[in-house]
Design brief:
The complex is a heterodimer. By secondary structure, chain A is of the alpha+beta class. Chain A contains four helices and five strands, in the order E-E-E-H-E-E-H-H-H. The longest helix of chain A has 12 residues. Classes of the chains: A alpha+beta, B alpha+beta.
């Protein structure tokens, strides 16, 4: 099965005031991954990241993540980013997974993982 | 129990006011994240995967009922109604909002709680034997000395910007209950032949990428010179520690590269040159601190309680609880009660606000208002009268905390791992939950006996995997969660680093691998021999063969 063809990009970070995981989307930062803007052209993702960095009182350390399509649903390729998009796997009532929906279900069902820029940036920074 | 004095209270108020202003300036854009981050970390506030995490210090792992209840209140009001006790005997709250942090710090300060010394390259919150003051074999109450060190090390200007973080533990008895050898400085209280009180000093232990057990650099340090000798160690480290390379900056690397003997020589030279009298704590101050740790007003009670004996005979679960979770106390008629936060299937070390309230009630009612945190991520009621044991057991059972599994297979240490931690490679909690559930049956668990499984989600080793009888380390192998298994480790008086058994194992196969290891132990053991001792006697081969049999 070749479900994972197109590689897309999204921009994410944690919100300064409350630490909430947010994604760059239509009209600004959105709390739900299904509302994230997906960029087929990496240059567009870079531009969104630059815009995010220009607003440092809203977001802490924004970065770009890879997103693939599992069937029709966008899913972060990295396991770490899937956990961020959903919430802890040990508390299904916590985090964004609680509200459900087809995209979140697709993320929860996804397997395979890749390294996240979020983690490598963090380690570099330390 | 030590109560913070007016000086401490003022310090906490100042600190909260200062951080409140720093948060305001950060949110207003007057400070960048790079400027703000070290300041928020100094107040215990980390950014994790889903939110900020607040790490609260629990000096020498001791909490009063009011403090534990306040932690429950903070978790209920500003978090999701639970907290996570760590291997450093601190507590972490996982869902904190930056904008609430000032109010949280203010609330905690009212009961003498804070997040100082929980982050940054300073001397971190110091841990002590969790059975301090309760255990017959202790040489002295280590909290007296740790409290003196807390006062000395808090905001110590010379030691606030060390090459790297710095962790100290003090054990109180020949049996180590702090894992002293895996600390930057580990100490063990001792008495010299002439009865003088002192410490064995071990320096340069640590886990992580390059694990070491700390060698002893001084067999006996007279207790009154604790602070001057610590100062000498810190100075040698501060001068020669590798500030140029974060992976080589811990004192363990310095000690290993100089050799323990040369390191000790430099410390002794430094120490000789110090004005000891100006640094060491005056006897009167030690006496003042000691008075605050005076034994509670224990009653004279019979060492055997008929009602307890009768209940043991009538109730199997109670008898199991007594056998595994209850220990002898230094005073006849009293016991130490270990409260397991490891009910199989639950998250190791997690405790809900309601549970915290209930334990606080039990401590106040039956335990001289004291609770302790053990580095195994369990809690302790250190002073319970034997005659109150049935009531305490009932109280714990009512809140799901009477699991009689201390030291058994399901009493697993697990770090937060990839479910919360921004540095993780793989999850740790679900691995622990699956193993604990598989070995939950008491008959099975009792047959296996003492087995310490420790799990970390990355090489930083917060879950102490190097020193587990079975250690499990999460790794990222071509993008999948894999786990490297090691055997034979211990952080206690039989300290040893574990041996890696072979290639990492895929996540879904880990519990089967653990079962294969346990079956091998059952086959190889002699009567009464613990898992770790069997492993150390027979070696890797049969264990390895059992785990990888499938692959051949
Ligand atoms: S061991 Fe790694 S994954 Fe676990 S808490 Fe520590 S840093 Fe996080």
């Amino acid at each position: 099965m070749t479900a994972t063809v197109s590689l897309l990009k999204a921009v994410t970070g944690n919100r300064l005031a409350d630490g909430e995981v947010v994604f760059w989307g239509e009209g600004g930062w959105r709390e739900r991954f299904p509302d994230a803007s997906l960029f087929a052209d990496p240059a567009d993702a870079d531009a969104a990241l630059d815009a995010a960095k220009a607003d440092p009182t809203v977001i802490v350390d924004p970065y770009i993540i890879d997103v693939r399509l599992d069937g029709e649903f966008p899913v972060p390729t990295s396991f770490r980013e899937r956990v961020r998009a959903l919430g802890p796997t040990t508390h299904l009532d916590m985090g964004k997974q609680a509200e459900g929906g087809p995209i979140l279900e697709a993320i929860a069902a996804a397997s395979g993982a890749a390294r996240s820029a979020g983690r490598s940036n963090l380690i570099k920074k330390r | 129990m030590y109560r913070y004095d007016a000086f401490d209270a003022e310090m906490l108020q100042d600190r909260t006011a200062e951080f409140t202003d720093q948060v305001r300036r950060r949110v207003a854009g007057d400070m960048t994240e790079d400027q703000f981050k070290p300041l928020r970390l100094m107040n215990g506030l980390y950014m994790q995967l889903h939110a900020y995490m607040l790490r609260v210090a629990i000096p020498y792992g001791t909490l009063s009922g009011a403090q534990l209840r306040r932690l429950g209140h903070v978790a209920r009001t500003w978090d999701r109604g639970f907290g996570h006790f760590t291997t450093r005997t601190n507590i972490q709250l996982n869902w904190i909002k930056l904008k609430d942090a000032p109010a949280i710090l203010e609330s905690m300060a009212e009961v003498g709680l804070h997040a100082i010394q929980t982050s940054g390259n300073c001397i971190r919150n110091i841990t002590a034997d969790p059975y301090a003051g309760a255990n017959a074999e202790e040489v002295d109450d280590p909290r007296v000395w740790v409290e003196a060190m807390r006062q000395w090390s808090t905001f110590h200007p010379e030691f606030s910007y060390l090459p790297r973080k710095f962790k100290i533990a003090i054990g109180a008895a020949p049996n180590d209950r702090t894992a002293a050898r895996i600390y930057d400085i580990g100490m063990k209280m001792r008495r010299a032949r002439d009865g003088k009180l002192g410490f064995e000093v071990m320096v340069g232990g640590g886990l992580g990428r390059t694990p070491y057990l700390g060698p002893t650099i001084r067999e006996f340090l007279p207790a009154e010179h604790l602070l001057s000798y610590m100062t000498a160690i810190m100075r040698v480290y501060n001068r020669h520690g590798r500030r140029d390379n974060i992976h080589k900056a811990r004192i363990k690397i310095l000690v290993a590269s100089l050799g323990a003997e040369e390191f000790a020589r430099q410390v002794e030279t430094e120490w000789e040159a110090l004005d000891k009298a100006a640094i060491d704590v005056p006897e009167a101050e030690i006496a003042r601190i000691r008075a605050s740790f005076a034994s509670p007003a224990f009653k004279t009670l019979p060492a055997i309680n008929d009602a307890v004996e009768a209940l043991k005979a009538a109730s199997r679960p109670f008898a199991q609880f007594v056998k595994h979770n209850v220990l002898a106390h230094k005073v006849p008629g009293y016991v130490i009660v270990n409260v397991s936060l490891k009910a199989p299937g639950e998250v190791p070390g997690d405790c809900t606000s309601d549970q915290m309230d209930a334990i606080a009630d039990l401590a106040e009612r039956y335990g001289f208002d004291e609770t302790r945190v053990h580095f195994d991520q369990n809690l302790i009621l250190p002073h319970v009268a034997l005659e109150d044991l049935p009531a305490v057991y009932e109280g714990l059972r009512a809140i799901g905390l009477a699991t009689p599994n201390i030291g058994l297979t399901s009493d697993i240490i697990a770090c937060p791992g990839l479910d919360y931690c921004a540095l993780a490679n793989a999850r740790a909690i679900p691995v622990a939950q699956e193993i604990a559930t598989r070995f939950a049956d008491m008959e099975v668990a009792e047959d296996i006996g003492e087995l310490r499984i420790k799990i970390s989600g990355c090489i930083n080793a917060c879950g102490h995997h190097h020193v587990g009888h079975i250690g499990i380390l999460g790794v990222d192998k071509k993008g999948e969660e894999f786990y490297q298994v090691s055997l034979g480790g211990s952080g206690l008086e039989d300290a040893r680093l574990g041996d890696i058994i072979g290639p990492a194992i895929a996540g879904p196969k880990v519990t089967d691998a653990i079962e294969a290891l346990i079956n091998t132990y059952k086959k190889e053991r002699t009567t009464g021999e613990r898992f770790v001792d069997t492993y150390r006697r027979v070696g890797l081969a049969p264990f390895k063969a059992a785990v990888y049999a499938e692959a051949h």
